[in-house]
Batch of 3 targets.
Target 1
Amino acid sequence: MTTFNLSWGDRPIQLETEGNRTFLRLGAALRVEVTDASLDQLEHLAQVTADLADVRRDRIRAARVADEVAAEDGYRFAGVPYKRPVAA
């Protein structure tokens, strides 16, 4: 099995059809054929995406809480200082 990383941000997610074949398009770079996917697999895909949305929602809430606590303490933002490495 080949694994690769793809980041598509807010690019569209949509279904495409070509003849009798169906594809799930994720952004501009990835198209997955789902023509023969079983109903169980499609339902599992829907559950996985719902779980991903929950994780993202929790991260957003956590960031808001950190910002609110920092604001109460008089800071504009909360974060970890980062020093860029010196270029050679």
Target 2
Amino acid sequence: MSDEYPLREKDLAVLKKIREGYDDVQKITSETTLENHEVNYCFTKLKNLGLITIHKPEGYTERVVDRQKRVFKAPKRVNLTEDAELVFRDSDRKTEKYQEMEYEELVDRVLELETQMARLQQSFRDLQEQIRENR
């Protein structure tokens, strides 16, 4: 997604589900491995970033959940904003970039990223050791 927005994988999963038409907490939790509190946190974060709007309907709703009819308070409903659509367009452009790459280019890129990751991990271990020594 866009570098402008500090989005976690959970946030992206929720955004994608909203885009697919799952517009409330219960629908998203039933379609993902996320729990209610995680989806609610994502909603708050996405709202604060201006990527969704949240509406809290009054009353109760009736749904079939796990093959049982349930009645519960109407869940929060959400809509994507125009900014969210821009985030998706940016993501689509980045995906196209990798789809256009040849297999060898992709392998080289993965190897390069693995090397960078190994260096970062070693730097982190070195820093931890320095901190331990200076205590």
Target 3
Amino acid sequence: MYRSLALVLPATLALAGMVACYTADFDETLSDVYYCQTSTECGETQTCFQFRCVDDSGPHVRVTGPESLQNVQFGTATLTVNYTAEDFTVSDSNAKTEGEGKLVVSIAGTEISTTSIISQGAQLDISSLAPGAHRLLVQAVYGDGTPYTNPSATGSAVFYLEAENPSRPQAALVSPLPGYVHVLGEALDVTVAARNFAFVESGEDCRVEDPCDPWGPDAAMCLPACAVVPQGHAHVYMLSDYPACLNNAITCNGDYVLSLRPSESVGVSGTTATARIPADRFTEAGPVTFSIGLQYNDHLPYPNQSVIIYDQITIEVVER
């Protein structure tokens, strides 16, 4: 099993200018010591978290419903939440007992009340959510409400809440999740998805003139004579004022850090694409806002600047 040395040599060695070969007996059970990029590089009870192998002993929560990128119909007031919880006993006790506690369900990044759940099929009130992509979180906590700290103690699922017109395209930043902590000096894989829209290498564009909404109630009055094809690619931006900056005198449309089309992505599968942001794009610690915007094949916003189809999250960049 591969391990990168993430230990800092003692100051006395550095001061002595020692350049001789350094060896050590590696203990793969140590937490937050060894560098990693995937969990397969870590020990059996560990996971790769913030590029370090960390102890993942504790509850392992996985969301089984809604399914990943499931579409929820417009006007749905409640969302049925299902999950699995390993190494964890769900209880209504308020005591802080190891291996026991409650599960708290919430929608990340949205002002919505959280609900403690102790059974399958719990109902979450989503009547206040706007159409678009949302991230469901299910987190294991002790009976007194203290969260379990191992990474797998929180399960998640990204789902769509469809618009009034169910054919309207929607975009989702699948990974990372809001609040993700990224380390300076590391690249970051970003996964995006789209609904009613396909990622393609190239194609013919039938442009909808601003401010026509092709899926609005007055679409028949403004649609072009050509067929509007829901396909193109996506841009990922690291801009705090997107999409407002598209209307600046000098538009920010070309200031993207990733273009997600098949030839420029790590992987593309129909309506999902993954690409890597280079490490040098992260220049300082602090919050970073990611936005994904759907684009025509010629890189202009789809379907126009008045009807922007986008998704947005904020992560935190830290120094290691």
